[in-house]
Fold this sequence. Notes:
A hairpin with a 6-residue loop joins strand 3 and strand 4. Helix content is about 35%, strand content about 25%. The protein has helices spanning about 1-50, 170-175, 210-245; strands spanning about 70-75, 85-90, 95-105, 110-120, 135-145, 155, 165, 185-190.
Amino acid sequence: MGVSRRLPTAAGWALALLVAAAFCGLGTWQLGRAKEKRAMLAQVAQVLHDRQPRPLADAAQHARAQEFDWAAGSGRFAPGPAVLLDNQTHQGQAGVRAYRVFVPDAGGAPLLVDLGWQPLDAQRQLPPVPALADTHRVAGLLAPPPSAGLLRAPAQAQANGDLLAVVLDPAALAAPLRQPALAQRVLKLDPALPVGFPRDLDVLPNTLPPERHLGYAVQWFGLALAVLITAGVLTWRRRRAAREKMGA
Length: 248
């Protein structure tokens, strides 16, 4: 009879520990993401401080696909469609980020160049991205493409030929842009250059900064503690009720 009274409590604690462990796992993951992003921002800050230019051909280096470098070089913007990356906000306003293919004079794979952000009106009318002729000298931050999140839809061709994309995947965009291949990294164009639209060198646009990850970690650990406290209170109440029943 004593065993039958203990079984539900043991099962309840097993469940509470399982849930608390899951919450702690999520909190630990958020702490890891905060650490990764702090390290990334520190690397970017150092690169922007030094601004030691590397060749644009480095954008195609597989070993540095997730790294950040300052790069510069001359070349031309390839004719053809622009890429408009959807779901990009700036100061609370919805818009798109415009990219065009740049072909370096010094050789190497063509790469996508971030020309800046453009707002969308209430009708979601896509802004025009004028073609850029002649040879240009460009400089900027070589960076991995913006985080795709969970979205994986292919780019959609618009009436004017431009491509509207929800994820910037150079490998998938090469064929629609009539290129044999595109470099894995993109060039975030120096805002000081008189080309394109308003822009910055923010490497975490539309994504969570380290502080938000830290805040979520605290919430997950707090939930884990709340589960254990609740289990403890319920166990105490159950035992007290059992003692009172035995005393009666």
